[in-house]
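Support request, please re-run this one:
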Amino acid sequence: MGILKILFDIIIPLTLVAAILITIIWVLNFKNKKISKLLESERRRFQLYKEGVKSLQQSPYPNPRKNFDALNKYARAFFKEYLKLDYSLTYLELEKHFRKNNKNLADFCKKMSDINYTGGKDKKEEIEKLAKEFNKILESY
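Re-run finished. Output below.
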């Protein structure tokens, strides 16, 4: 009887500890897979932004207005995702938001707003500079 009591005193707690550890490992593994999928999805989206901007820069027949519109689309989508918004802010609102924490992003937003509202969409050099600047922003994330 003494041996059975010792076995039950040891086996039952060890079984409970093992069951708890297996449950914890299973939950952590599940969470890890979920996080990995989210990271991979985010990496693919950022890659699409980078490829889109790169295609603008390498366009053999650049159309500044079309390139600006495409850059605008990529930048707005990026900022909307980056800030986790349900809507797009104007570049002036984005500039105000970034002015406190990230001067590079604030400057980029200011330039996009200026070109968008001052008729600079037809200036090839300006659009190319903005595309390079946005590409640098993407590379830093």
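The chain is about 80% helix and 0% strand. The radius of gyration is 26 Å.
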